[in-house]
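User: Teach me something about this protein's shape.
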Amino acid sequence: MKNKMKTAALVRAAMFAALYVVLTLLSNLLGLASGAIQLRLSEVLCILPIFFPEAIVGLTLGCLISNIITGCILPDIIFGTLATLIGAFGTYAFKKHKFIATLPPVVSNMIIVPLVLKYAYRLGGAWWYMVITVGIGEFVACSLLGLLFYKMMSKNRRFFE
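Assistant: First, the predicted structure itself:
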């Protein structure tokens, strides 16, 4: 029985990674996945560690794969993935407070992504502007859409078990 539970968790982590990649590719096709103004649809999934601790690994792996296949440069691959990992751990840590749990991915991306944009990509513009624009995109994806996804998951969680 214990091996069955481990296998199920591994499959869920892989499924979450695949969903993250697909949603990032969709965002990329729509021109929303990168730059100073971005709205990665995949960030909606950042609510998943509330329900499944293995989502931390799935989201992190999904971000890593997404950043590689969408042509990000090495600092973005490393630090963008780190921002997702930090955010996922934060969501898990605050899982008892659903709105607060949506904020760690927002904050980690608001801090890390603008630094990557400014120093790795040499994107012009003020750092604070990128903090605001990235933060708005993350807030919409993680907090607003994430809470809608939370409600859906709360009603249908057994589908994933």
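Now, about its shape. Residues 2-160 form a domain with the Arp2/3 complex 21 kDa subunit ARPC3 fold (CATH 1.10.1760). The chain has a mean pLDDT of 93. If you'd like, I can walk through any region in more detail.
User: That's plenty for now, thanks!
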